[in-house]
User: Fold this.
Amino acid sequence: MEQIWEALYTAGGMFWKALWALIFGYAISAGIQVLVTREQMGKLLGERGGREAGLAGFFGFISSSCSFAALAASRSVFVKGAHSTNALAFLIASTNLVIELGIVLWVLVGWRFTLGNILLGLLMMLYAYGLTSLWFPDHLAQEAKDHAERAQQEEGMEAENDMKGTWREKLVSRKGWVRIAHTFFMEWKMVWKEILFGFTVAGFIAVLVPQPFWNAVFLLSGDAQATPGVFQVFENALVAPIVAFFTFIGSMGNVPLAAMLWAKGASFGGVMAFLGADLLAATVIYIHAKYYGWKYALYVSAVLYACMVAAGITVHYLFALVGQIPDQRPAVEEMVRFAIDHTLFLNIVFLAIAAVLLWLHFRGGGGETREPAERRAEGGAPSAAE
Assistant:
């Protein structure tokens, strides 16, 4: 019982330290998602090309969200006409260039991890573009698109669920702010279990899993300051996504686990590959198969695995080249602090912001501002006017 309490305390402390960053990130993400429609994205991403892939990455970045929401958004963009390669770039960016993920990483383990994660996402998009140029069965894309359209019809969803109007009209209207508040609420509704599970698992692993286990998995010598060799960096990058597969959680849930792995001695490249592996969690692969069929899901998973391993190794040696690999490994105890400090005051401010957004959602007619298709997706019936 003492160990269980210590694990829960550790999980709660890590969550408390990251709480303001989570609220800040999801508030920004909600605002951006309301301002740019997926239909606009689909029209610009219909052709394969470097420019289109770059745009897809940019749209993915500004639509950043949890892994499960990103899967749905990527499917929507794909069905609306985006080339499959661009839909993949959108998916990678929307899960690895996540605003709130970068902020929480900075809070827990430092700015180098935030910068490394940005480079990781960009490199994964670049490698995915190259791999799909070399190896892409043409029939798979059409089969996947047909499967996605059928899946949407079976779910009672339409392709269009974006709010109408320009971004300026949305920003100055009550309806626009209510929609932002609703999106903020839906983001948390979709991801709170993943976040709770991720921090809880990180707490229990930090307390219950002995250091010799991590020494064996990541080939650690026991000297936390030792420079990892080439073989160890490659092995860590190959193994970390497999560890992520068995966590069953996505992007935000992976952050506390990544911080814990760094504290336990994993190489920088291994931690980077782990951060990129949110799209290889078992639950994510299953949803991919549900959307597109198992052939396409397994193909995409193989491409993503190769990309995250290669990107993790590349980021490691790019940082090593300029002497910027972090040399401090904060103990788990340093990430677990309940005190009267800047974290307390930041949490108070952002909890107040969250309260205002939630008030707008519940008192501002959040359900009535949504498009018909979105309400049907939640089980509600459209009105006669719709």
Observations:
- The chain has 18 helices and no strands.
- Residues 156-161, 366-386 have pLDDT under 50 and may be disordered.
- The CA atoms of residues 1 and 7 lie 10 Å apart.
- The first helix runs from residue 2 to 35.
